[in-house]
Amino acid sequence: MKLRLPALQRAMGSQQKGERFKFFKETISELKKVSWPSREEATRLSTMVIVISVVVGFFLGAVDQIFTWLARIVMFRG
């Protein structure tokens, strides 16, 4: 049984066998040119993202609690 992917077949239909994987070869070539961060920099930036996410989470949680408290006061009159 042959798997049929019409859109993929149309997109690749006019290409020769050797050119079908040209996209992947070019992608790998471009990834080799990327300036990857060092291990220390990646660790530092990841830690920053986690810390900022936790701080923002606590802030949004506090804002939610304040709005909940205000909504209870307005709806139930204390």
Indicate the overall shape. Answer: elongated
Unreliable stretches (pLDDT < 50, length at least 5) are none
User: Strand-and-helix sequence, N→C?
Assistant: HHH
Count of alpha/pi helices: 3
Distance between the termini: 70 Å
**How much helicity do the residues have?**
over 70%
Structural class label: mainly alpha
How can the largest sheet be summarized? none
How big a fraction of the residues is strand? under 5%
From the alpha-carbon coordinates, what is the Rg to the nearest angstrom? 27 Å
Mean of the pLDDT scores?
85
- For the secondary structure, the number of strands is 0
Q: How would you sum up this structure, described in words?
A:
With about 80 residues, the protein is mainly alpha-helical. The chain has a domain of about 40 residues. It has three helices and no strands. The longest helix has about 40 residues. The protein is elongated, with a radius of gyration of 27 Å. The model has no long low-confidence stretch (mean pLDDT about 85).
Tags for this model:
78 residues; mainly alpha; 3 helices; 0% strand
What's the structural blueprint in terms of helices and strands?
Elements: H1 6-12, H2 22-33, H3 39-76
In short:
With 78 residues, the chain is mainly alpha-helical. Helices cover 73% and strands 0% of the residues. It has helices at residues 6-12, 22-33, 39-76.
